[in-house]
């Protein structure tokens, strides 16, 4: 059967190339065996549904698995306890094959909606009977719980789960309950006192932490590519391609699969990459990444909506990207918590960082696009675009020369604070129209700080490394030159570029060439 990379809905190992999920399924089963109730809350398109479907199959030998999806419930199903109990009962009857007759008759009556006295407490007594009568212990899995989290019926549903969980030594109940969605159900509050204090508590405070890593590792990506290679004999360097994909996605499942799908279906068999062997290369990867960054998909739309909803988040991400400011990660901060929950940022040693390089570039492009219309630097790059191409290659030295000239004309009399906060942003504004369409760029996150930032340009299959730095004296400058030389070695390049923002009033602006061993450094000073 023909297999393909899938980014639409859940993945089926029979027809889709997938990473091996057995390791994380074993971890989750250990939580189930230990009677844990927990939530799998991950960002959109992070593989939750695929994992839950695989988990239900993985558990069925030892447990009766009641696997539901709240996305199949209508708005009317949450209007009253009776309507919810009817909908829930129908789902139970559809999901379980071996329902004891006594329990089945009750659930059928609830499902018919003819018994007005049916409440959540009545339903849960019947579910307790189901758990007691079943030959195997019962595991409840509910996907897409986000669709119900703002509903009082759902909050009461959680309260019932909590009530029976606390009585599980006296009354048989679910062995484990797994709720999956984007938002953490533990943030759903239930008022437990009607007085003026309005004290609140979460009915889902019994839930254990879910610490299973659902991102894809390099080894897992390599395993998926090995399966592809067996089918297509593309001759790819599997470990190198897996490492490259991980480096740019941090293992975000959708981004991994989307890049692979683009290489396989759109990069291959094109003019520049005539077959799969040509496409599954580093150059083919960067062509696919360029396509992915330009897409207007639901992940990017969610990110932009959050920036508009939370101006504070927008401000800190802007500073992080363009000025290299360090942002402490604070889990109790609402906008930061939501951004982490949605997969946009992550906690790296108590510091908030953007989750992956794809998102970083998307954010750079978004912020820069806000300034295109009124930016003199962008217009200068746009007007002078053709002079930067020599024989189809990007003339980066000429780019730097023209930037220095334009920047000095427009902003040469500005103070140190201006240069430190806006200099690098202006260079990206100048660069963007020059490479737009034929090339792309990325920022090396490990170098993005208040003192330096490395930009890697990908243009017509060639790479160019430009280091942007703030002048901190000769000793620091020499150290950065050595670092850039090492960086060029990593990229197998003989020539590198440096743009220095120098606050010294006696500086000499312009571009010069420096030899660093067997490397050539083109340095521009503004």
How would you describe this structure to a colleague?
The protein is α/β, with parallel strands linked by helices and 526 residues long. It folds into four domains: 22-201, Rossmann fold (3-Layer(aba) Sandwich); 218-294; 298-370, Arc Repressor Mutant, subunit A (Orthogonal Bundle); 372-526, no CATH class. It has helices at residues 22-33, 48-59, 81-95, 101-112, 120-133, 152-166, 218-232, 238-249, 253-267, 276-279, 282-294, 298-309, 311-322, 334-341, 357-369, 376-383, 396-411, 416-435, 474-490, and strands at 37-41, 64-69, 138-143, 176-181, 190-191, 200-201, 345-347, 352-354, 389-390, 393-394, 439-444, 452-459, 462-470, 495-501, 510-516, 519-525. The strands form five sheets. The chain has a six-stranded mixed β-sheet with strand order 11-12-13-14-16-15, sandwiched between helices. A hairpin with a 2-residue loop joins strand 15 and strand 16 (519-525). The longest helix has 20 residues, at 416-435. It starts with 21 loop residues before the first helix and ends with a strand.
Attribute tags:
19 helices; 6-stranded mixed sheet; alpha/beta; 4-stranded parallel sheet; Arc Repressor Mutant, subunit A; 526 residues; Rossmann fold; 16 strands; elongated; single chain
Task: Give a short summary of the structure.
With 526 residues, the protein is α/β, with parallel strands linked by helices. It is built from 19 helices and 16 strands. Mean pLDDT is 88; it is low at 190-199.
């Amino acid at each position: 059967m023909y297999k393909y990379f899938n980014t639409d809905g859940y993945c089926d190992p029979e027809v889709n190339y997938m990473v091996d999920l057995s390791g994380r399924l074993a971890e989750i089963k250990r939580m189930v065996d230990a009677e844990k109730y927990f939530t799998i809350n991950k960002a959109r398109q992070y593989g939750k549904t695929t994992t839950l479907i695989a988990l239900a199959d993985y558990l069925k030998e030892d447990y009766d698995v009641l696997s539901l999806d709240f996305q199949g419930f209508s708005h009317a199903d949450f209007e009253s306890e009776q309507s919810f109990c009817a909908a829930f009962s129908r789902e139970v009857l559809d999901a379980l094959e071996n329902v004891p007759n006594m329990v089945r008759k009750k659930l059928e009556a609830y499902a018919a909606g003819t018994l007005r006295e049916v409440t959540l407490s009545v339903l849960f007594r019947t579910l307790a009977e189901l758990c007691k009568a079943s030959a195997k212990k019962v595991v409840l899995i509910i996907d897409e719980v986000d669709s119900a989290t703002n509903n009082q019926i759902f909050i009461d549903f959680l309260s019932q789960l909590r009530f029976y969980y606390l009585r599980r030594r006296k009354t048989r109940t679910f062995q484990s309950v797994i709720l999956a969605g984007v938002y953490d159900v533990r943030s759903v509050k239930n008022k437990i006192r009607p007085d003026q204090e309005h004290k609140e508590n979460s009915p889902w405070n019994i839930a254990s932490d879910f610490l299973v890593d659902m991102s894809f590792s390099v080894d897992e990506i390599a395993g998926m590519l090995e399966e592809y290679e067996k089918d297509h004999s593309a001759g790819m360097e599997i470990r190198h391609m897996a490492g490259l994909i991980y480096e740019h996605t941090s293992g975000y499942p959708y981004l991994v699969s989307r890049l692979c799908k683009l290489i396989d279906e759109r990069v291959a068999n094109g003019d520049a990459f005539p077959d799969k062997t040509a496409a599954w290369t580093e150059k083919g990867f960067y062509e696919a990444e360029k396509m992915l960054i330009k897409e207007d998909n639901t992940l990017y739309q969610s990110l932009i909506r959050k920036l508009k909803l939370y101006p504070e988040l927008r401000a800190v991400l802007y500073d992080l990207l363009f000025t290299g400011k360090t942002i402490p990660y604070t889990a109790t901060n609402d906008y930061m918590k939501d951004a982490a929950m949605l997969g946009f940022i992550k906690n790296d040693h108590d510091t908030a960082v953007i989750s992956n390089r794809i998102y970083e570039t998307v954010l750079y492009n978004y912020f820069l696009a806000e300034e295109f219309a009124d930016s003199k630097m962008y217009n200068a790059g746009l007007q002078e675009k053709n002079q930067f191409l020599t024989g189809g290659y990007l003339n980066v030295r000429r780019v730097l020369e023209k930037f220095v000239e334009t920047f000095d004309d427009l902003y040469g009399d500005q103070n140190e604070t201006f240069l430190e906060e806006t200099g690098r942003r202006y260079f990206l504004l100048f660069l963007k129209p020059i490479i737009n369409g034929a090339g792309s760029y990325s920022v090396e996150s490990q170098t993005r700080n208040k003192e330096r930032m490395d930009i890697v340009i990908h243009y017509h299959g060639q790479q160019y490394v430009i280091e942007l730095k703030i002048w901190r004296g000769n000793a620091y400058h020499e150290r950065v030159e050595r670092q850039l030389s090492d960086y060029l070695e990593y990229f197998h390049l003989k020539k590198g570029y440096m743009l220095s923002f120098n606050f010294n009033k006696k500086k000499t602006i312009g571009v010069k060439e420096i030899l660093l061993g067997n490397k050539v450094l083109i340095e521009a000073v503004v």
